[in-house]
Amino acid sequence: MASASYDARRGELTTYFDRTAVEAWSRLTSDAPVSRIRATVRAGRDAMRATLLSWLPADMTGLRLLDAGCGTGALSVEAAHRGAEVVAIDVSPTLIGLAQERLPAIAGAGRIDFRVGDMLDPGLGRFDHVVAMDSLIHYRAADIARALAALGARTDGSVLFTVAPRTALLTVMHAAGKFFPRSDRSPAIVPVTEGGLRRRMTSETALDAFTWARSHRINSGFYLSNAVALTRARPSASAGSGAASPGVRT
Ligand SMILES: C[S@@+](CC[C@H](N)C(=O)[O-])C[C@H]1O[C@@H](n2cnc3c(N)ncnc32)[C@H](O)[C@@H]1O
């Protein structure tokens, strides 16, 4: 169950990613030239996406993947190229529109169902894998743990996510300050320690069935983020019972 702080933060992020920073995100996630600082962020994000994708099966035919907070959809496209049935959800209708505009032809069985809404919506159904790349980094540790529990409860394979490491707080603050001009600065990134997050996660019973399988840090100039893979060690009681709700197929 999401908290008031989760809801409030999601509201701020909706305003930010749907209005304030649309132009900057559109550019950052394209091939258009960017400043030297943003080029390090782009390179870091490319490396992060490659890391997360390397933790997913090479052949995803028939597998359901949730791209939680998909932004302009780059990871969704890669997963669909591997044959995955992707649900790509974001709170920003503008970024979803951009993702749909940019969508290349997907050969084979893969497809992407774009949605506007909350990644925790249970109506999205069950998944084999969930990826939340840089979409939980603005939430408090307690809210990240609760979100992971909600996502984990409907995931049969792995939940891959990123967090901003607190060990390098200054770097993160520096990056957050420099990444965008003052006028379109993002809601603060909330750095977390691995120990602190793991402690929060132990109070989420839905996560008892998951193992913290691996983590990997990407540090590229002004981009700093830790990737974490949670893998299901015990089958879910409700596995196989949750059908996906119908949606727009793109
Ligand atoms: C930093 S961007 C990353 C986008 C994408 N995952 C990527 O790596 O390119 C974070 C995204 O998460 C989305 N987001 C944040 N909270 C969300 C939530 N509760 N449900 C769905 N999307 C959310 C934002 O709108 C934004 O597009």
From TrEMBL:
It comes from the Bacteria. InterPro entries: Mg_prot_MeTrfase, Mg_prot_MeTrfase_C, SAM-dependent_MTases_sf. Keywords: Methyltransferase, S-adenosyl-L-methionine, Transferase. GO terms for molecular function: magnesium protoporphyrin IX methyltransferase activity. Its EC number is 2.1.1.11. It holds the Pfam family Cons_hypoth95. Residues 132-231 form the Magnesium-protoporphyrin IX methyltransferase C-terminal domain. GO terms for biological process: chlorophyll biosynthetic process; methylation. PANTHER family: METHYLTRANSFERASE (PTHR43464), UBIQUINONE BIOSYNTHESIS O-METHYLTRANSFERASE, MITOCHONDRIAL (PTHR43464:SF19). NCBIfam families: BchM-ChlM (TIGR02021). This is Magnesium protoporphyrin IX methyltransferase. It comes from Methylobacterium oryzae CBMB20. The lineage of its organism: Bacteria, Pseudomonadati, Pseudomonadota, Alphaproteobacteria, Hyphomicrobiales.
